[in-house]
Structure prediction request, 154 residues.
Amino acid sequence: MKLTSYTNYALRSMQLAAIKAPALIRVDDVVAIHKLSRPHVVKIVHELGKANYLQTVRGRNGGFRLSRPATDITVGEVVRTTEGPLDVVECFNPDKNSCPLIGICTLSRKIREATKAFMDVLDGLTIADISANRDQLLERIAPLELASTPEAKQ
Prediction:
């Protein structure tokens, strides 16, 4: 299984919001910490806001925060939102399937079973779980945040 970088950064943005809660997180914080392009992070935050995972606040002192408790958001639901259907192989998508073995193929059934097991693990994992080692995470990102301040750039 391989998730897109979009999903990875969506989860990282939510993880950062969880460890910094209740403070607002700026897009520039995510950009600095994870070395991402600003337009990419803006798109991610916008989409997560539309999906009601993040509350976004516009303006000079704006930013984003989780829109509900981190314990109530599973990684699996975020992955489904950002990835869409996990059509690991062509035959999972009836609109694109051209395989003559559909319905009798053991490989297809086992890949479907493996995909379900993968998502079952992610459904049992919350944003709170991936933020539980808050102190270690904050310690690791502290130098990255300092390097992104206006004073550090002078």
User: Anything to note?
Assistant: The two ends are 43 Å apart (CA to CA). The chain has a mean pLDDT of 89. The longest strand covers residues 54-57.
